[in-house]
Design a protein that fits this description.
- By secondary structure, the protein is mainly beta.
- It has a single domain, classed as Phospholipase A1 (Outer membrane phospholipase (ompla), Chain C, Beta Barrel), CATH 2.40.230.10.
- The chain is built from three helices and 13 strands.
- The two termini are 30 Å apart.
Amino acid sequence: MWRSLYIGSAVLLLSSLFSVPPANAADEDSTDTSEKKKKVSVWFPTADFYPRYIADPIRPQNALTIQWLADTEIPETGAARFGLRVGGSFGIRRWHPEGEPDIGWQLSFEGGLAAQFDIEYSWDNTGWDGFYGLYLSWMLTPDLGFRFGSQHNSSHIGDEYSERTGRKRIHYTREEAALGVSWRFRPRWTTYAELGVGNGIAGSITSRMEAGLQYISKQKYLNGSASRFAAIDIRTYEETDWSTRFTAQAGYWIPVGNRSAVHRLAVEFGTGRSVMGQFLWEKESWLGIGWYYDF
């Protein structure tokens, strides 16, 4: 199923290479006075117009964080960790009406990894997860959009943690198809929801549900170079009896030029199922600070 999804997306991409650009309506019928907007396609667009889930801790992104754990069920770990996240979303091709780049379709690839290192145990790597996926987004209006695609999540236990505790890696690799919707219901407020269905533990097919709310203010802070933002994200998983993780972020949002790239300086709070897939049955609560970068 998952291979066919990737193959189908590849066929869509390759077919677009040899497709004939749509003709202008006036060329087809010079007597037709109605105006039809020309369709435009752009390779490797610099912006990903479907909104990012800001507070989602396992969304591919770049980040350096320090976390203090108020509570953890992961045995033989300290109360402070360093977090490293690397990755992002990369636009492949966008199709949109001429003069309206904020609506239409876009094919994107996203990928990255998220790792945690135990500061109290010589910065040993506790665990890390790798992600990649292919998504097709459809912005019906600049405020309302949908996306469909697939995501691969492969989790790994840290070598140092495994050697010190004797804990072995569990085979947790989740292949998932996802359908999401995002709605900017007020100029600076966006909400979203997503349903994922895939195989995780022992190959069983289970569901994942996610929802969130985020706010970005006007750009009037730090000498007019930054906005303030706040965001929450909730994920719940059928594979672990609907265990739920709640995360929240707040801080400064600093855009980079005219691109969609953004720096964030933020405080993060999280509680619930561990972010690391190797510890999906363990729960944690943490407070962190960090630098985040999306491009």
